[in-house]
Amino acid sequence: MAFFIAALCLLGTAACSGGEQRLKMPPIGDAEYHWIAARIFANETNGQTKYLTYWGAGEDFPSLGIGHFIWFPEDVHAPFDETFPAMLDYVSERSRDCVPLPKWLQHSVVPDAPWSDKATFDAAQDSEHVASLRDWLARTAPEQAQFIVASFRQRWNELELKSGNKKRLTALLAELLNTPEGLFAVIDYYNFKGLGSNPRERYAGEGWGLVQVLGDIAASTGVDAPLVKQFSEAAAHRLQRRVANAPPERNEARWLEGWHRRVAAYTRDAPKRTEQATSQYRVSPYLQQVSNESATVAWFSERSTAGTLRIEGAAGDEYSSQPRLACELAYHLAEFRNLESARALPYRHEISLEGLQAGKHYRLEVEQDGESATLQLRMPDPTRVRFAVYGDSETEPESTGTPVAWPASAADDEPRYYRVDQTTGYRQNLAAIAEAKPDFVAIAGDLVQSGGEQRDWDEFWRHNAALAASVPIVPALGNHDYYGGPGDFGGYGGAASQRAVSKFKAYFGRPNYYVLDYGPVALIVLDTNNGKPERSAADTNWYLRDTAPAWQEGSEQWAWLQRTLADAQKNKAFTFVMFHPAPYSSGIHGRPPGVGRGKNFTSGWPQRVLTPLFLRYGVDAVFTGHDEMYEHSAVTGKEFTATGRAREHSVHFLTVGIGGDGLRGTDPEVHNPYSLFTADRDAPEVYDDAGVLQDGGRHYGHVLVDVGRADEGPWEARIEPVYIFPVTNAEGEVQAFETRRYQDGFVLKDERVN
């Protein structure tokens, strides 16, 4: 029970409050805790997750977590403070709802370390026990940083020193802690070398902890330097003294250079002081899952209190949410240092509305912790539907200010860059969509750059939250939405992809595949990211075989698709399908898997096996992304109607990967015999005499679909590719943006035979 008592002390109970000279800590925000965790992680483990479980050469114990907390095996009594058991108690209490302890550590009393020596520990690194512990440590880094701060505060307040000395050092500490540089210097050094109050942590009677460093500063006179610089220099001096006094057999001189680099860094790379969130909403209320008679409203809040939703003009129509902690939206340890405004986990709210009237407009009001937000809900109009489709926004903070390569044209033989960066291009595309007032917007996958990076999803909602308050988003999963992220994020497959997809589902509440029933339209959304049957490591989607659902013949998704297609053919004027990889493409993914340059990762060729189904059931158009270009292809074959009649039918395949990333063109080594139009080939660039682009070329944009009918006549669907043209002056400076149409519009007619 001793460790539980220690943990209670860290929570600030009165029984553990000893000492008269209490230290007042400045408020530390979530972003700072994330930053502190990242810096300590980098210092202790060289930024490598494998070193979260570590046993140093010549040591009698392992060092675990971002702070390399010490855990003694049975019968080991080293002259250092054991910190792992108290950390485990503290962090597990705070993270149990989202990151429960590995089962083998779920005891009422934390046991001794189960490894007797370094050899046994090293042999167990790939075991289930150690792997689960390492994963838990990686996912609880901010809580570990909080433990370090809480431990420091408690132990300092309990520290027994001569009254005058305690008062002087506490005042010195308070001054240091009130600067971002000083805050990190104190916390890191305390974690690194301890408080210095343990009489066993001495060489030749001299300690090297925080008390000793502060004492050296207090004893110095006439020093004209910032306090954090004095701290850095005093810490370096103390470490030098430790090495000089250490027993020769420990050979501590081998560590001194690295120690000095560590404390020298205290004068730079300080965490930013962040203000508390001004809004109660992490993501403001947005519409989703709007169908003929129902709709869902979702939002994310800072607090766990219930929110309310009211329907304007409907007496008594008030709904209360049941918030849940959104564990899926945690930041990954690998992204902590790049965060500017990280927050604690938010709470998810969702309210489903049933029995709504077709064609009616509703004004909704959501109130959360005293803050109101309004939504405009337009239920499906039985006489018309308008929706926009794009793909490959691939949002990430790094896209801001990042232009994309725009290959040379006939008018310019030198490589050049597009006139606006990706973020600006995406923003203008969304502005044009909002201006068109669609009933919903469909996204053909790759919503974010890395589905496992929370900051990429933060960026997505910075762009989309306002629009989604009146226009529901209908998304498909793309390969980037399955991508955990580079390096330590885990890449494709396994836990990394599961983490990525869990974020997608937390935001949209959709399964991997589903159908949107919207007036005369059925939009069937598939997940075709699973890499079977190629069985080739050359295809990155092969790594998703255990994460993404199978979609090939014989799978549950295939059977579901057949049933859904048959129902739509019978009951809907138009059937549209959406998924990510383009089966017919003139772009870089237009080769079979493993063929050509770069072995063609994530080819769309395997999805061609779906085309006979699309023809058989009269699918009108298929929307895909992936190739970051606009292309229109068509495949003609036989449709068999619900009455058994065969007739010629064409399925239009539209690659709409022009949302906000890339802007690729056709690949000269790829031939797509089904292609009817590509932006770079069939909309040639037009320049004036001064060399200023006037029209044409590849641009960010979307496809606009208008479905309607005249009186009792047949339904028609007009499909037009829209692009956002940057108007520039002679110097190439963007002056304005214009919404234009590629000359590839076409009309589909309802050809159902009754």
Keywords:
17 helices, seven-stranded mixed sheet, 754 residues, 4 domains, alpha+beta, disordered N terminus, Immunoglobulin-like
Can you describe what's shown?
The structure is a single chain. The chain has 754 residues and is of the alpha+beta class. It has four domains: 25-158, no CATH class; 161-273; 281-379, Immunoglobulins (Immunoglobulin-like, Sandwich); 380-749, Purple Acid Phosphatase, chain A, domain 2. It is 28% helix and 21% strand. It contains 17 helices and 29 strands. Strands 12, 15, 16, 26, 27, 28 and 29 form a seven-stranded mixed beta sheet that branches. The protein has a seven-stranded mixed beta sheet with strand order 17-18-19-20-22-21-23. Strand 19, helix 16 and strand 20 form a beta-alpha-beta unit. Helix 1 crosses helix 3 (84-95) and helix 7 (163-177) packs across helix 8 (180-193). The longest helix is centred in the first third of the chain and has 19 residues, at 227-245. It is elongated. The termini are far apart.
